[in-house]
């Protein structure tokens, strides 16, 4: 089976050193580099071409998926895309040249110097009680306290189940105007851990107010718990848990976790409880959270 590498760029027909007609140019050179990362049956695309096509229609978005970062010559990285579907392409991720290095430690240090979260809204919704699939929706209000614009954000998702394919999480990231925040890097794509970067439509400057972004994804939660560790200060944290009643799901209790001893104690914060049709919704409001705090719910 063949493998295919695709890129959009200039190509020229030239005479080579042996006098033969040949193809040369940045377009074909880049396409060959993309192809070299593939295995049998892969149809791989450069990020430039992939994003251009994905912006044209939902049909292209369904068949052209981000894979992970790869290392090019001179140590540069590129987010690789793969096209596949019924009867074409190769759904398995290529392994050649994969760059898997967590950036979370250095990102946390940067965030602590540059970023403040006035508010975080977290909504957890059980959408399939039998498989215990939970939709996570996190909305962050972002204030830039540095003189440099914030152009992108790093996301981390840790799981209790193995999800080999990044795209099976149904990830969506968008800003306060519902504009998509494009994925520009997938630097960790392990079965139980994903780490990726998205880019804002407009950089966030020190003068900006009301800037937000939302991360959504769906994942199975067989252990029936969720923890949120605060790595930077947060002025207001709103968390809700929505679940169908009558499915053996217990009403969750908010716990505070000591990060050093990992000991958990029940929180004194009282939730607000409401009912929506056949669902119960539990909401907690927590103010003035300092970095290092961890909260947990079990259900």
Quick overview of this protein structure:
By secondary structure, the protein is mainly beta.
List the uncertain runs: none
- The domain tally reads 2
State the order of secondary-structure elements, H for helix, E for strand: EEEHEHHEEHEEEEEEEEEEEEEE
| Quaternary organization | single chain
Structural class: mainly beta
Give me the Rg, rounded.
22 Å
Calculate the mean pLDDT score and round it. Answer: 92
- Biggest sheet record: 7 strands, mixed
Determine and state the CATH class of the largest domain. Answer: Mainly Beta
Helix content: 10-25%
CATH topology label of the largest domain: Immunoglobulin-like
| CATH H-level superfamily title of the largest domain | tricorn interacting facor f3 domain
User: Which sequence of strands runs across the widest sheet?
Assistant: 10-13-8-7-15-19-18
Strand content: over 45%
Tell me what you see in this structure.
The structure is a single chain. The strands form five sheets. The chain has a seven-stranded mixed beta sheet. Helix content is 12%, strand content 48%. With 299 residues, it is mainly beta. It has two domains: 80 residues, 2-Layer Sandwich (Alpha-Beta Plaits); 195 residues, Sandwich (Immunoglobulin-like), CATH 2.60.40.1730. Strand 18 and strand 19 form a beta hairpin.
Task: Name its key features.
Alpha-Beta Plaits; single chain; mainly beta; Immunoglobulin-like; 12% helix; 4-stranded mixed sheet; elongated; 299 residues; 2 domains; 20 strands
């Amino acid at each position: 089976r063949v493998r295919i590498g695709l890129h959009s760029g200039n190509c020229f027909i030239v005479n080579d050193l042996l006098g033969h007609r040949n193809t040369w140019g940045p377009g074909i050179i880049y396409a060959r580099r993309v192809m070299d990362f593939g295995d049998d049956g892969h149809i791989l695309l450069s990020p430039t071409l992939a994003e251009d096509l994905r912006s044209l229609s939902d049909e292209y978005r369904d068949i052209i998926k981000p894979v992970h970062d790869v290392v090019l010559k001179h140590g540069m990285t590129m987010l690789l895309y793969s096209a596949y579907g019924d009867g074409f392409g190769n759904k398995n991720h290529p392994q050649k040249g994969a760059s898997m290095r967590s950036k979370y430690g250095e990102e946390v240090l940067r965030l602590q110097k540059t970023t403040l979260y006035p508010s975080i809204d977290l909504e957890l919704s059980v959408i399939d009680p039998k498989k215990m699939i939970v939709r996570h929706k996190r909305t962050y209000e972002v204030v830039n306290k540095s003189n440099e614009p914030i152009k992108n954000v790093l996301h981390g998702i840790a799981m209790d189940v193995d999800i080999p394919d990044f795209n099976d999480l149904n990830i969506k990231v968008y800003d306060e105007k519902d504009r998509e925040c494009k994925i520009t890097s997938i630097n960790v794509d392990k079965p139980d851990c994903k780490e990726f970067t998205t880019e804002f439509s407009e950089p966030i400057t020190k003068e900006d107010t009301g800037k937000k972004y939302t991360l959504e994804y769906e994942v199975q939660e067989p252990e029936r718990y969720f923890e949120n560790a605060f790595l930077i200060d947060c002025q207001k944290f709103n968390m809700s848990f929505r679940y169908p009643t009558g499915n053996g799901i217990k009403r969750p209790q908010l716990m505070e976790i000591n990060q050093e001893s990992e000991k958990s104690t029940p929180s004194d914060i009282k939730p607000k409880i409401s009912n929506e049709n056949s669902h119960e919704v539990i909401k907690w409001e927590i103010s003035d959270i300092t970095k290092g705090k961890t909260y947990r719910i079990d259900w």
